[in-house]
Amino acid sequence: MTSKELDYSNKIIMAPMVRVGTLPMRLLALEFGADLVYTEELIDYKLMKCKKVFNQVLNTVDFVDESEGDNVVFRTCEKEKDKVILQIGTADANRALKAAKLVEDHVAGIDVNMGCPKEFSVKGGMGAALAADMENAKKILTTLVNGLSIPVSCKIRIRKTVEETIQHVKELEATGIKAIGIHARNRDERPQHKPHPEVIKAVVESGLSIPVICNGGSKDFIERYEDIKQFKELCGASSIMIARAAEWNVSIFRKEGKLPIMDIIKMYLKLAVDYDSVATNTKYCVQNMLRELQESEMGKRFLEAQLMEQICDVFDMKDYCKQKQLEYQKKEMEIRLEKKKLEENGDEPSSKRLKIDDENTIMENIAFVRANYLKDVDLPKSILHLFLKRKLRIFPKYTTEQKGCLFRSTLMIGDKKYISSFWEKNKKFAEQGASLVACLHYNLVTREELIQNGSMNMFEP
After folding, report:
1. 50 is catalytic
2. Residue 265, C-beta contacts closer than 8 angstroms, at least 6 positions apart
3. For the range 344-352, what are the long-range contacts, defined as Cβ-Cβ under 8 Å and sequence gap of 24 or more?
4. Which listed residue (116, 154, 312, 321) is catalytic?
């Protein structure tokens, strides 16, 4: 069924990497010269639970798992649309097709992970387990090839012998895939073991009609841009994909040579802030870039950071992080106000309108700006709960409503309700917003302070 073409030949590619291959790193790899970029492996079950949402604030397309609130499983944008390949982890042809269909219009190709030796994948019949179940592996690929309008590929590891590897590749090639990635180690080998480029070369020389993408040379062969070509030639492959060398310094794709790691970290952090990345994932990526620098004073300070604002502060980017958060929250508010006008004009269903029908409800238009609070003890919720415990001996209760991927909480203190009319991006932020309304009511914060820190802006209350 494939109608869209993608040339896999003579390409330098960022390989799929768990927690690393998210949007900021993919965009940075493309900026430095990568021809194609793979996502981290996404499990079919996870994708199938997702709802596609156009994020007007970030100008991205988000695939959100509504069963986990605000969890963005996959985020992409127009900049990478023709160059991003989504890798699926699957053990079932029908599930694979359903998952791939969800993202089909937003990626350049689909790749099936048939090489991961990790216990999670193998126990689920995915990854390297498919090498022992060739009928299922071929069924998955054939179903995807016949059911998608975009090209399909797969990524494997070499087998115990050259002959087995060649036979394995030939069978997979016959399913109609457009390329095959081959890691130069077998299922039982790890990065500390030497790769076997000669096996990949034998596969290429056996005569294939599709491009071979070699992988597995980072630790032993690839330190500079020039090394990329040398490893590719060792393997005799048409293209090459790079994982660890890109994880350590993504400017490995830069023809002019790698940039200093501190420059790379700041460039990565800027994109992570720009695309509202999760702090834990951002920290993981920066940690892999710092490597031995984690033992320095700066590194130790970084390791203590938990929030995006704290991570950015280590690299003198706290102001940029705060400014961007304020910018996005302002944009969110403008979108909400526009929707409110539509509601008032009757252009939106009345069920979406906020109804305040009793004098015990206090509502303010207050946004929770995370960058204002570097310490957990300073969070509105923490301050309010301490006040209520000491002064009133009351325990507050929160209820949260969800609309799409947005959240709004109602805080109950005695017989009074406190609500912020600002819809937040997750449940935790929504509860903090409602807490700010209560803090304002109890004079724990002033309206002037909220205006000054951007929680209340020039918007109508």
Report:
1. no
2. 286, 289, 290, 315
3. 352/403
4. 116
